[in-house]
Design goal:
elongated, alpha/beta, 4-stranded antiparallel beta sheet, Alpha-Beta Plaits, Aminopeptidase, manganese, diaminopimelate biosynthesis
């Protein structure tokens, strides 16, 4: 077994490497499924480290590190790599140079921390049994990346999965390892309301898609309060309502886009049925019609209980038991790491990156930034969890 002090020192020795990579990725962000330059840089790093890899889709990679002590379990480590379609207003020297694209969720840090961890794991290749697969995954932000690995059969022989997300809600030096449900499912629905144009001075001759859509948005708010149990954890949120072309024209079309979040598959199905039913019947009441579509972006993220205990023991070596949170509130935010956990047991941990005002902005904020010391903790956690699991798999 590799001593923890050795791992810590080796991570510290490559701090400049990890930070420089993170700043490079932050400065050159790319949105979901367009991460061409990002994945090319990752391929170059893997080649320099000496790891074979296969491409997954156009912008994903799966590398392999085989232990020198013979066959054993297969563990997959994952980092997502895509950025968000929003401006970067950090004012940092490494701020995005790509207008309207920003690593405002920390995926730049995820990729760089995992690459740092891979360097250390490679150095100890002869010390462990089994195989470590390293997934650099695109398109987490649109729920389209993890399923490329799952549906492509790349995790069919995997015994365990592990992932890390940085967290600006928690101070540097803390690790969150929560058993059971952690993040909600995510469905993204779209309702197109069809009406009939006309002059607003003759409302009886038209079918107002705008008024119909407004009524639908209002009625959808009753699902949580009237169609689900008070104990159910459900969000029905509307983020888009577009309608109309001019002040004196009855709108002949309106578009509603929203999301459903929950932790229970049965409740999820119930709520989605209610969204479509209420939208359709409300539209009919206004003499309009709808087209309903839904995109299944992510399953509920449910951590394995034994994996959570394993993560606790690994994290304790790094930050001490007093700095580990095992009862964090569940989040209605989704992450498609859930697609891995739906087929392979494992855990998704969070690592704190907040150390002051500049690093306290919430994820998806234009000024989101991290204390880069958190990257070292994330890298060490990847290494420690992997080596401990392969030495004592369960």
């Amino acid at each position: 077994m590799v001593e923890q002090a050795v791992i810590q020192q080796e991570i510290l020795d490559i701090e400049d490497y990890i930070v420089a990579l993170r700043r490079h990725f932050h400065k050159h962000p790319e949105v979901s499924l367009k991460e061409f330059n990002t994945i090319q840089r990752i391929r170059e790093e893997l080649e320099e480290i000496g790891l074979p890899y296969v491409n997954v889709g156009e912008t994903g990679v799966l590398a392999t590190l085989t232990g020198g002590k013979g066959p054993g379990k297969t563990l997959l480590l994952r980092a997502d790599i895509d950025a968000l379609p929003m401006d970067d207003r950090t004012g940092a020297e490494y701020a995005s140079v790509n207008p309207g694209v920003n690593h405002a969720c920390g995926h730049d840090g995820h990729a760089s921390a995992l690459l740092g961890a891979v360097r250390v794991l490679k150095a100890h290749q002869e010390a462990f049994t089994g195989t470590i697969l390293i997934a650099f995954q695109p398109a987490e932000e649109i729920g389209a990346g993890a399923r490329q690995f799952v549906r492509g059969g790349f995790v069919d022989d995997v015994d365990h999965v592990f992932g890390i997300h940085l967290s600006s809600r928690h101070p540097v030096g803390t690790i969150i390892a929560t058993p059971g449900p952690s993040n909600a499912s995510c469905d993204i629905f779209k309702i197109v309301v069809h009406g009939k144009s006309g002059h607003v001075s003759n409302p009886d001759l038209g079918r107002d898609a705008l008024v119909s859509a407004a009524a639908i948005v209002t009625e959808l708010q009753t699902i949580v309060s009237r169609e689900t149990k008070p104990s159910d954890e459900v969000v029905v949120g509307i983020g888009v309502l577009r309608a109309g072309t001019n002040y004196n024209i009855i709108a002949n079309e309106a578009v509603i886009e929203g999301t459903v979040r929950t932790f229970d598959p049965d409740v999820r199905a119930q709520v989605l049925e209610a969204v479509e039913r209420i939208a359709r019947l409300t539209a009919e009441a206004h003499r309009t019609s709808i087209e309903f579509s839904n995109y299944d972006a992510a399953a509920p993220l449910i951590n394995d209980v034994r994996a959570a205990e394993h993560a606790f023991q690994a994290a304790k070596k790094i930050v001490g038991a007093e700095n580990i949170i095992t009862d964090a509130p569940k989040s209605m935010g989704a992450d498609d790491f859930a697609d891995f956990l739906a087929v392979v047991p494992g855990i998704y941990c969070f690592v704190g990156t907040q150390s002051g005002e500049s690093t306290a902005f919430n994820h998806h904020h234009e000024q989101f930034d991290i204390d880069e010391k958190g990257l070292l903790i994330a890298a060490e956690l990847h290494v420690t969890y992997a080596l401990d699991y392969l030495a004592n798999p369960f």
